[in-house]
């Protein structure tokens, strides 16, 4: 509209002139008039400011773990039985508050059962415990706790808590919400691990990098199902955005569950309250940019060799039948695949057809998302057969079934993770592709890029990035993860944590009532 400059249009609007513009367009022109030219670009080019201030470093959560002094208490009634009791008395005595009286045997056993197994004790169990408690209170309680920790229901009760935290589900989510038939194996692994009293650091390390730490261990591979829990939309045409959402999901959940930080608030800008620059979000995400879904068998190498040998016998016996079936479906599959790929943008079609030797790791990950939709279409190719071809294909299916006795026995299939290639892609911001981020920890704790393992120190097909992060987050001196898990145990035993906001220890969360207990 050359006849209307922003200033003349605004003047007309303000003076009641005849120029008629939509409110949104008028507001845009108003911004053009009042925002100095070049202001936005000047802000973009401004030198980065150090986001980590002295007061941030002094915030209790980011300070190193301390070895707190146990408070001296009077304890005239001899109530305190351990150091935790002394910390509690240290807060009660100055206020003149006496501890609550001891619970009776019936109350104690019910608390222990509901706490550790989620189930009530039977009448007979209450009677037996009451009798033992009357004779030896401390011994009866110790024996009760040991028995409940050995109960299989312990892993089920506390496994459910962990599964809720990591957003476990057995379907994809979104509108279609397709079923994930093998996801339950991760659920059962969590339960088994808790019942086996697996150390917490190993429990976490295997979930983050079991494929790198113990690549031949089916249990470690099953644990990486943690990295397969992201929601998946089966008809999403914007594959790059979809992959970005997957990486964001992994990053956000890992930050809140393991580290107690709302790191997701830093994906678009520096965190408004906590000392987490935006760069830190993508440095942390870069530990996971190499992940690639790996559907495999939960078998030992020997079991896999036996399975493959039997499978080879079946394949030899059925080779001619399957070859004829493949020939019949070749054109319907090609047609289905081509039709599905055309649903994507020209840029993604070009990526899908790019020669294999030219594909980058990120190309392979995005192509995998496209291929998933292609596979769904190809699986329905037999429905395109008509008349005699359909009849013949049905006959071949029946003939193939007659060889089922040669098939190996089904083995456990698992949803695992592996690295796409040792040279994992850097983390990127979708609308700023020129910016790339290598793996790194939170700047306030460990600035600079993380030091990844050398090729000789990691599996040949992996980067070792996730192992590096797993080792860091489970270090005994990590002030974040250690306090977070201690608080979770307190929270789920007593109904409220020492920090009430169990997923957010930052400045928008609650302060701890007894920070010494967490340390």
Write a structural description.
It is a single chain. The chain has 519 residues and is mainly α. The chain folds into four domains: 6-45, no CATH class; 102-150, no CATH class; 153-298 and 415-475, no CATH class; 301-411, no CATH class. It has helices at residues 6-15, 23-34, 39-45, 54-57, 83-92, 105-116, 123-135, 137-150, 152-165, 184-195, 200-213, 218-223, 239-259, 278-285, 301-317, 319-341, 346-352, 361-378, 387-401, 465-473, 479-494, 515-518; strands spanning 291-297, 413-419, 427-429, 432-437. The model is unreliable at 1-6 and 37-48 (pLDDT under 50).
Please give a handful of descriptors for the protein shown.
two-stranded antiparallel sheet, 519 residues, mainly alpha, single chain
- Could you give a short account of the major beta sheet? 2 strands, antiparallel
- On the 0 to 100 scale, the average pLDDT is 89
Q: What amount of the residues lies in strands? A: under 5%
Q: Structural class from helices and strands? A: mainly alpha
Q: Give the total of domains.
A: 4
| Computed Rg | 30 Å
What gap, in angstroms, lies between the N and C termini? 67 Å
Oligomer: single chain
Helix content: 40-55%
Give the low-pLDDT segments. Answer: 1-6, 37-48
Secondary-structure topology with pairs:
Elements: H1 6-15, H2 23-34, H3 39-45, H4 54-57, H5 83-92, H6 105-116, H7 123-135, H8 137-150, H9 152-165, H10 184-195, H11 200-213, H12 218-223, H13 239-259, H14 278-285, E1 291-297, H15 301-317, H16 319-341, H17 346-352, H18 361-378, H19 387-401, E2 413-419, E3 427-429, E4 432-437, H20 465-473, H21 479-494, H22 515-518
Antiparallel strand pairs: 1-2, 3-4
């Amino acid at each position: 509209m050359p006849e209307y400059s922003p200033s003349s249009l605004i003047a007309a609007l303000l003076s009641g002139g005849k120029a008629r513009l939509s409110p949104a367009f008028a507001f845009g022109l108003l911004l053009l008039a009042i925002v100095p030219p070049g202001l936005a670009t000047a802000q973009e080019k401004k030198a980065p400011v150090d986001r980590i201030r002295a007061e941030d470093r002094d915030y209790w959560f980011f300070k190193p773990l301390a070895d707190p002094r146990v408070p001296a208490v009077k304890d005239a009634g001899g109530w305190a039985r351990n150091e935790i009791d002394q910390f509690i008395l240290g807060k009660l005595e100055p206020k003149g508050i006496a501890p609550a009286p001891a619970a009776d045997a019936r109350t104690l056993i019910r608390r222990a059962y509901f706490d550790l197994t989620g189930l009530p004790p039977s009448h007979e169990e209450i009677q037996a415990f009451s009798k033992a408690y009357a004779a030896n209170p401390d011994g009866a309680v110790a024996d009760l706790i040991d028995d409940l920790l050995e109960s299989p229901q312990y892993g089920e009760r506390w496994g459910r808590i962990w599964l809720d935290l990591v957003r476990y589900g057995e379907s994809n989510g979104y509108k279609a919400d397709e079923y994930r038939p093998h996801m339950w194996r991760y659920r059962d692994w969590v339960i088994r691990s808790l019942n086996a009293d697996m150390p917490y650091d190993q429990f976490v390390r295997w979930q983050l990098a079991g494929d790198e730490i113990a690549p031949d261990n089916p249990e470690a591979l099953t644990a990486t199902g943690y990295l397969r829990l992201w929601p998946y939309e089966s008809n999403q045409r914007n594959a790059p955005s979809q992959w970005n959402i997957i990486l964001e999901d992994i990053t956000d959940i890992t930050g809140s569950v393991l580290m107690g930080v709302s790191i997701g608030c830093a994906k678009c800008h520096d965190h408004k309250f906590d000392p987490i620059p935006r760069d830190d979000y993508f440095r942390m995400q870069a530990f996971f940019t190499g992940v690639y879904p790996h559907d495999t068998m939960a078998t030992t190498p020997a079991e896999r060799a036996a399975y493959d040998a039997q499978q080879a016998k079946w394949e030899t016996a059925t080779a001619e039948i399957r070859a004829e079936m493949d020939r019949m479906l070749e054109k319907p599959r090609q047609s289905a695949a081509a039709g599905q790929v055309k649903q994507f943008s020209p840029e993604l079609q070009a990526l899908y057809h790019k020669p294999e030797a030219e594909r980058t790791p990120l190309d392979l990950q995005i192509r995998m998302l496209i291929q998933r939709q292609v596979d769904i279409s190809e699986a329905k190719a037999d429905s395109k057969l008509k008349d005699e071809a359909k009849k013949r294909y049905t006959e071949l299916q029946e003939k193939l079934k007659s060889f089922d006795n040669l098939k190996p026995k089904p083995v456990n299939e698992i949803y695992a993770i592996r690295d796409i290639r040792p040279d994992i892609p850097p983390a990127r911001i979708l609308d700023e592709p020129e910016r790339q981020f290598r793996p790194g920890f939170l700047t306030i704790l460990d600035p600079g890029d993380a030091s990844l393992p050398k090729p000789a120190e990691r599996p040949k097909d992996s980067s070792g990035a996730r192992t590096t992060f797993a080792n860091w987050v489970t270090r005994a001196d990590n002030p974040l993860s250690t306090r977070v898990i201690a608080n979770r145990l307190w929270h789920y035993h007593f109904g409220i944590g020492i920090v009430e906001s169990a997923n957010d220890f930052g400045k928008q969360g609650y302060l701890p009532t007894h920070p010494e207990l967490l340390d």
